[in-house]
């Protein structure tokens, strides 16, 4: 594993992500110009097939789900990153996703609430129509 490029601004990051044939891009949300999520949105070209890991100081509840919806393969807080980074990168390179256990629990709760709400609406619709 090695570092093969570095960008300090949005424009540089987007240019590198689109032109290079990397396996993984580690992207920070906070960067001069525009943010890393803008880079993530801009890398949806056939030439950029790199998996993207967001590494950030921003709380997961603010950006992780949005990052995953935009195509990131993982979201890692910088706070514990030195110990976890190599393991998370290996996981992503195997085609897996990474979220923290705390975020996974929130997602499971959210999915459960969403399904319960959908089921309730379906039952109400059926009883109203009956």
Summarize the structure.
By secondary structure, the chain is mainly α. Helices cover about 55% and strands about 10% of the residues. Strands 1-2-3 form a three-stranded parallel beta sheet, with helices on both faces.
What is the secondary structure topology, with strand pairs?
Elements: H1 10-19, E1 24-27, H2 36-42, E2 51-56, H3 60-69, E3 74-77, H4 81-93, H5 101-129
Parallel strand pairs: 1-2, 2-3
Helix pairs in contact: 1-2
Report on the structure:
The chain is mainly alpha-helical and 130 residues long. The chain has 2 domains: 10-99, Rossmann fold, CATH 3.40.50.2300; 101-130. 53% of the residues lie in helices and 11% in strands. The chain is built from 5 helices and 3 strands. It has a 3-stranded parallel sheet with strand order 1-2-3, sandwiched between helices.
Mean pLDDT: 78
Helix content: 40-55%
Q: Provide a count of the helices.
A: 5
Over all CA atoms, what is the radius of gyration? Answer: 18 Å
Enter the CATH topology name of the largest domain. Answer: Rossmann fold
Distance between the termini: 62 Å
The CATH homologous superfamily of the largest domain: Response regulator
Q: Which strand order does the major sheet show?
A: 1-2-3
Main β sheet profile: 3 strands, parallel
Global structural class: mainly alpha
Beta strand %: 5-15%
Return the domain count: 2
- Would you count the extended β strands for me? 3
Defining traits:
3-stranded parallel sheet; 130 residues; mainly alpha; 11% strand; 2 domains; 5 helices; elongated
